[in-house]
Design goal:
318 residues; mainly alpha; three-stranded mixed β-sheet
Length: 318
Amino acid sequence: MDEFNNTLLNDFILMGVTDQPWLKKFLCAFVFFFYLLDLCGNLTIVSLVVRDPVLQSPMYILLANLSFVDMLFSSVTVPKMMVGFFTENIITLKGCITQMYFFHVFGCTEAVLLAVMGYDRYVAICQPLQYISIMGKSACIQLVSASWFTGSTYSLINAIMTSQLPFCNNRRIKHFLCDVKPVIKLACKDTHVNEVTVTMASGLMSMTNFSLTMLSYIYIIPHVLKIKSSKGRSKIFSTCSSHLTIVIMFYGTAMCTYLGPSSETSLEKDRIAALLFTIITPTLNPIIYALRNKEVRNSVKKLIKRSNVFRICLKPKS
C-alpha cells in the first residue's frame, strides 16, 4: 500500500490541441485574436447595459450576465492553453481540479442563463401586460442567482468525484484543459461509476435546460404568428433569432462533448468541440446580439458619438 501511495501523481501535462509546430503557431495567433475579440465584445455589452438606461431592462441585464460568464468561461482555459503553445504545459493536481470546477461552473451557469433568457422572451411576448410584475428587478436577481447556484452545485459533483481518484501512471491529459472525461481516463482504478455519473449529470443538466428553452419557443411561435403587424413580427423575430442562434451553437457542441462515449476517437473530437464552445461561441455571442438587436446597435452608436465628442473637446485649439 505504501509503495502504491508513493507512485501517486501530483501534476499532469496538458497535451494541447496539436503536436505540429507550424499548426501551433497558427492556432496561437488564432486563439489569441479570438480571445481579444471575446473580451472586447463581451466587455462592451456589459458596459453598455451598465451605462445606458435604455438597456437596463431584465432582457439586457440577463444578456450582460451572459457576457460576463462568457468572459470568465474563456479566461479559465485560454491563458493556460496559450502556455502550451510555447512550452510543456504542466498543471498540478489541485490546479487541474480547480480549473475543472470553474470550467463547469461557468459552462453550466451559461446553460441555465440561456433557459432563463428563453423564459424572459416568453413572458415579454406572450404576457406583455404582466411582464413588469413577473420579471421585475427582484425576480431577475433571483433567476441570475439560481443560475450561478445551479452551476456551482453541479460542478461540485465532477470536482469532488474526480479528486477522490488515484492517479499513478500516465500523466498526459489528451486535452488543452482539465476536463472531466480525459482526466478520469488517467485514473489507475475502475472509473465506470464516474463515467456514468458524468454522462447522467451532464445529460440531465443539458437536456433539462435545452427542453425548457425550447418549451418557451413552443409557446412563443404560435403567438408570433397571430401578430398582424409585419414590423412587430420582425422585431420579435430579430430578438428571438439572436437567442436561438446562441442556444444552438452552445448546445450543439456541448452535447457532442459530454453525451458521447469516452473512447480515444471521441476524446479527439471533444478537443475540437471544446475549442468551439470555449473560444468561438463566446466571441460570436456579442456580435450576434449587436448585429440583430436594434437597441444594442443604437447604444453602440451613442457610445461612439460620445467618444468622438470627448476627443474633439480634448483636442488642443490651434
